[in-house]
Write a structure and sequence with these properties.
Structural class: alpha/beta
Distance between the termini: 36 Å
Strand content: 25-35%
Bound molecules: flavin-adenine dinucleotide
Largest sheet: 8 strands, mixed
Shape: globular
Radius of gyration: 21 Å
Length: about 425
C-alpha cells in the first residue's frame, strides 16, 4: 500500500491522478481465519486494526452486511469528548481522545480531527451542580475540563442567546480538547490500514448464524457460506441483540433510532461544538459550512434509519431559542441510525457465555468518540482472552451483579 504524502500527490498530479490504487481490497472470503470480526463500523475496524498493530494477529476477516461505515459510524454527528463522570468511562473515552489526537498520522489518513472545544450548557441549577461534580471527578481522573461562566460562553459562541425564553444559560461544562472528526474518514482510514496489513474486509455479506461445538465458537454462516474462525468478535451496534441470539444468549440491550439533520451551508459562524441538554439539541458547523444538528432517540424500539417530522420540530425549537440566527436556515437532510442502548448507558466489552466469542456493543448515542479506545480495548480482550484495564469494568455480567456504570446523566442528550 503506497503512503499518502505531499510527494505522492505531486507525483500523481503529473499523471492526472490516474495512478492511485484502491484504498482497500475486495477479496472473496477464505475458508478459515484466526479471527472474524462481524461489523465493519468504526468499532469493528478499529478492533481489527489494533489486533494487527498491537498483538500481531493479522489473519483477520471483517464481515459487513452492507458497506463499511454505512451504519451509525457514517450517520453520526461526530462529537468527540472525554469528560464523562465515572472512572471506567473517562478512562476509555480519554484513551480514545488521546488516540484521536494522533490518528491521522498513525493511519496515514486524514481523519480531520478538529479539537475546536466543546460546551455542554448548564440551563438549570440541577445541571450546574451536575457539571461541577463532573469537573471535580475529571480533575481526580486527570481529564482536563472546566466549568465556565455565561460571559465566557458568550465570548466563545457570539451567536448564542444567553437569555432564552425558557431557560437562561447559567454556565457550561467546557472541554477545550473536545471537538469533532470526519466520521467516514475514520472508517476509511482504519479500513485502509487493515487492508494494508493483509486483513480481508468482506462487504455485502451478512452473518446469519453462529456455529459452535462443545460451547466454543467454530465460525459463522453467512450469505456467502460458512467461514470458520478460532475467535469471533461481534461489533454490530443496533443489531447486537440478534447476533447474541444467534450465539445462544440474550443481551440487556435495546435498539432505538437516533436522529440528526443538517442545514444548508453558510459562512463560518460557530467554531465550537455546543450541546444544550435541557432544551435538547446540539450543533456544530461542518467544514463545508452546514450546521450539523443532533436530535433525540425515538421513544420506542425500532430498526429504522429515517428521521421524523416531530423530532425535527422538537430539535429545531430548542436550537432556535438557543441560536435565534438559525431561524431562517433551510434544512437539507435528516436521517437516523440504529443505536444500541444499555440500561446504564455504558458499553459492553465482554467475554460471553460462548467460548472464544466476544461482544463489543452498547455505545448507544455516543460511541463515535470512543472508536479508537474501544478498538484498543476489544483487541486486547480478544488477543489475551481476558479484559485489560480499559475493558474490565464493562463486562456484560455487571447487569446481573448490579455493578452499573451509570452515565445516564452524561449521555442525557445524545453524547
Ligand atoms: C444520528 C446519530 C448521531 C450520533 N452522534 C454521535 C456523536 O456526535 N458523537 C458520538 O460519539 N457518537 C454519536 N453517535 C453514536 C455513534 O454513531 C455510534 O455509537 C458508533 O458509530 C457505533 O459504531 P459501531 O462501529 O459500533 O456501529 P456501526 O457503525 O453501526 O457498525 C455496525 C455494523 O455492523 C453491521 N452489521 C449488523 N448486523 C450484521 C450482520 N448480521 N452481519 C454483518 N454485518 C452486520 C452493520 O451493517 C454496521 O455497518 C450517533 C449516532 C447516531 C445514529
Amino acid at each position: 500500500m503506497k503512503r499518502y504524502s505531499v510527494f505522492a500527490i505531486a507525483k500523481q498530479a503529473m499523471n492526472y491522478h490516474l495512478g492511485w490504487e484502491r484504498a482497500w481490497a475486495a477479496p472473496e472470503p477464505k475458508k478459515h481465519y484466526d479471527v472474524i470480526v462481524v461489523g465493519a463500523g468504526g468499532h469493528g475496524l478499529a478492533t481489527a486494526y489494533y489486533l494487527g498493530k498491537n498483538h500481531g494477529i493479522k489473519n483477520v476477516a471483517i464481515i459487513e452486511k452492507g458497506w463499511l461505515g454505512g451504519g451509525n459510524t457514517g450517520r453520526n454527528t461526530t462529537i468527540i469528548r472525554s469528560n464523562y463522570l465515572q472512572d471506567p468511562s473517562s478512562a476509555i473515552y480519554d484513551k480514545a481522545l488521546q488516540l484521536y489526537e494522533n490518528l491521522s498520522q498513525d493511519l496515514n489518513y486524514n481523519v480531520m480531527f478538529s479539537p475546536r472545544g466543546l460546551l455542554m450548557l448548564a440551563q438549570t441549577h440541577h445541571e450546574v451542580r451536575g457539571y461541577l461534580r463532573t469537573v471535580h471527578a475529571n480533575m481526580l481522573q486527570g481529564v482536563q475540563t472546566e466549568y465556565i461562566s455565561p460571559a465566557k460562553v458568550k465570548e466563545l459562541v457570539p451567536i448564542i442567546n444567553n437569555d432564552g425564553p425558557r431557560y437562561p444559560i447559567l454556565g457550561a461544562l467546557y472541554q477545550p480538547r473536545g471537538g469533532t472528526g470526519r466520521h467516514d474518514a475514520v472508517a476509511w482510514g482504519y479500513a485502509r490500514a487493515c487492508s494494508a496489513m493483509g486483513m480481508d474486509i468482506i462487504q455485502q455479506t451478512e452473518v446469519t448464524a453462529v456455529r459452535s461445538e462443545g460451547g466454543v465458537v467454530k465460525g459463522v454462516e453467512t450469505s456467502k457460506g460458512f467461514i470458520g474462525c478460532n475467535k469471533l468478535g461481534v461489533v454490530v451496534a443496533g443489531h447486537s441483540g440478534q447476533l447474541a441470539e444467534m450465539a445462544g444468549f440474550r443481551l440487556p440491550i435495546e435498539a432505538v433510532a437516533l436522529q440528526a439533520l443538517v442545514s444548508e451551508p453558510i459562512k463560518p459562524c460557530m467554531d465550537v461544538v455546543v450541546m444544550a441538554n435541557t432544551v435538547h439539541g446540539y450543533m456544530s458547523q461542518s467544514d463545508k459550512g452546514e450546521m450539523v444538528i443532533g436530535g433525540g432517540t425515538d421513544g420506542f424500539n425500532n430498526f429504522t434509519q429515517r428521521g421524523s417530522f416531530h423530532h425535527i420540530e422538537e430539535t429545531l425549537r430548542a436550537l432556535v431559542e438557543t441560536f435565534p440566527m438559525i431561524s431562517r436556515l433551510k434544512m437539507l437532510r435528516q436521517w437516523g441510525g440504529i443505536v444500541d442502548m444499555t440500561g446504564d448507558r455504558s458499553p459492553i466489552i465482554s467475554k460471553t457465555p460462548l467460548g472464544n466469542c466476544f461482544f463489543n456493543c452498547g455505545w448507544g448515542t455516543g460511541g463515535f468518540k470512543a472508536i479508537p479506545g474501544s478498538g484498543w480495548a476489544m483487541a486486547e480482550l480478544m488477543a489475551k482472552g481476558e479484559p485489560g484495564p480499559l475493558a474490565e469494568e464493562f463486562s456484560m455480567w455487571r447487569f446481573k451483579e448490579g455493578k452499573f456504570i451509570d452515565e445516564s446523566v452524561a449521555a442525557g442528550v445524545a453524547h
